[in-house]
Structure formats: structure tokens, C-alpha cells
Amino acid sequence: MPKAKLDHAFVSTAQCQPGKAKTDWYDTIVTGFVFERRSSGGGTYYFRFSDAAGRQAQYKIGGETDISFAAAKKRAVQLRSEVVMGGDPRAKKAEAKSIPLYKELSAMHLADAKLTQRSYSTTEAYVRIHVIPRWGKVRLTDIEPRAISQWLGEKRAEGLAPATVEKIRVIFGRSFELGARWGVPGTDKNPVRAVSRKPFQNAKERYLSREESIRLREAVAQSQNTQLQHVVGLLLLTGARVRELLDAKWSDVDVERRSWLIPTSKTGKPRHVPLSTPAIAIIEALPRFKDCPFLIPNPDTLKPFVSIKHSWQRAIKVAKLPGLRIHDLRHSAASFMVNSGVDLFAVGKVLGHASYQSTQRYAHLANDTLLAAVEAGAAKQAAA
């Protein structure tokens, strides 16, 4: 096999020997550094060495058009030093190739979410629309905190709501958490964990007044969706999430004990919701459908409503409550409890909050109750 002092000038003029598919030249300076010229005209840099078993091995450094001669030679020197020290360049390359791309990890994440999360469709959409386009083809060990932070900044610059960007960050980090639990190569460190959570105030809570709640109840009573009045009434009285109520079954309700079991809540844990006398009255008045296990089913399908969006929109228009979201009924239920003197801890238990911090958003609502308390105290002192 021919030898030559490889340099940029030699490589740029080297021609494949006539009648051969390729010609290799060994560098006379760096042992193992090889340049290959093919009859097609293409050229590639290699490093060849003897492995621990004495067999000849080869490591591709790069194509002539992809890497400069100076960079290729520098890499060959590094590889030669590694071999002299007893290393095997192929091992690192093989290890790097064994690290999955993020799209492979995301597939595992979504498969798990489909079995364990009630909000699977949301997770799937965020991964598909936001995360995969940027990180799908990147190896897990090449995903770095700084790049993630920059990417999330770009998402905010695109106009995404702060809560949406935070949701993206949490879902992305969850992929690595699951990967570490399953022993997926490249997930021993979670790069998302090093990205700080940007503080934001995304509160859009709206709280119905007593007069507004009366208007809403009157409007839903007129709805063509005969079940809407029951849904709204129970949401206001229990503070439950709408999906929890739409999926509720008769077997989950114990009228005698005045308790409703939600088998799987947003936190992933079951919880019991206490039922007030008015809530029991609504439940006892609900229409029953033969062989239907659901508490408030769609009368046409006898299955849970997929959505009540259209009837809800018509109802809030009639009630003159533009922009009211059905989730605001949960906030309103909390508001009514807090302003009736119920402490925040009890409110949090009713709503099924996983942490006290979640209930703190309602702390300001207790102002009327607290004001009444100090007024009562002042009156007592004045009478003494």
C-alpha cells in the first residue's frame, strides 16, 4: 500500500490508480493516518490501528468535503495517542451510537402516558408540536441546558403563553425522568432540571358572584342540553374538574355517606369529595338510563360527553357572562367556600390539591371574612 507525506496539497491532487476502485495512502508522519481516493472522485480520511486482539481496525474520521485536512490530521493524532494508551476509538463511537435519539425516548414517554395519564392527548400534542420538531433527531447526551433555555426563550418570543412554555419544559423534563427510571442510556442526567423555571403570573381565574351564579343556573336550565344544568350545578357545589364529573359513575357515589369517589384524579391519586345537601338533591333528581353506569351521560350515546363546549357557550351568552370558562366554576366553588369562612386547608382537601401552595391562590378571597373577624374583635373590645 503506497505511503506519502500527507498534506493539503497532496490530498487535493491525489488520483485513484487506473483500473482500481480506490487507492489508499498511509501518512509517513502520523502512524495509521490514511487518505482514500475513490475512482468516483470522492475522498475520505481514516485512522487504522491494531486492536487489543491484534486485528486491524479502522475508524472513519470524515469525508474530504466534510472536514479540512488540518482537522482530519489533528483528529488522527488524538486517535493515535488514544491507541498508544491502550484505548479503542471504536468503543467510544459505538457507545455514542448506543445513545437513543430523543424521538425514541419520547415514544416510550407517550406509551407510558397513554396508560397512566388522563391528560394524554395534551401531553401528546405538546410533544408532537413543540418538542419533537426541535429535539427529535438529537441524541440524548447532546441535549444541553443552555440550548434548552434558548429554545424555551424562542417559544416565549413566538407569543406562547408563559404557562404553555412552562408546560413544555415540564413535559420535556418528564421524558428524562422516566428514561432514568427505565435505565435508558443517556438519561442519567436530566438537562431540563438545570433550566430554571421562569416566574410568571398566568392567573385567569374568574369568580362568580352570587347574582352571576343565579343567572348562570337559569341559563343552563333553558339549554337544549338537558344535562348541562346538572353538570353546572354539581361543579359549583363540589369544585370538581369537569372531566372528573363527566366520567363519574353511579358506583362512585355513596348518597348515604354523602361522598363521591373520584378513582383517578389529576394528581394520579383517588380522592373523596364530600356532597352537600343541595348536591345530593341534584344527584337524586338525575335521570337514570337503563344499563348505563355513568352519572351524567350524553342521553344520545349513554356514554360520557366528549365535550359540552357548544351548549356551554350558548348558556354563558344567555347569562351575559362572556368569557366565562367552565373551569372557572371550580374557582367559584372555592370562592364561595372561602368567603363563607372555610379555612384554606379544608378548601384544598375538597378540591383535591396536592399541595397547600395550590390553594394559596384563593387566600385573597378571604379578605371579607377576615375583615368581619377584626370588626367583631374591635366591637368586642369597645363593649368591654
Task: Report on the architecture of this protein.
The chain has 384 residues and is an alpha+beta fold. α4 (102-116) packs across α7 and α9 crosses α13 (328-338). It folds into 3 domains: 3-98, Double Stranded RNA Binding Domain (2-Layer Sandwich); 102-194, Tyrosine recombinase, N-terminal domain (DNA polymerase, domain 1), CATH 1.10.150; 210-374, Orthogonal Bundle (hpI Integrase, Chain A). The protein is built from 16 helices and 8 strands.
Classify the beta-strand content into a percent band.
5-15%
SSE class: alpha+beta
Q: Remind me, CATH topology of the largest domain?
A: hpI Integrase, Chain A
Total of domains? 3
The tally of beta strands, per DSSP, is 8
For the record, what is the CATH homologous superfamily label of the largest domain?
Intergrase catalytic core
- Quaternary structure: single chain
Instruction: Detail the poorly predicted runs.
Output: none
Strand order of the largest sheet: 1-2-3-4-5
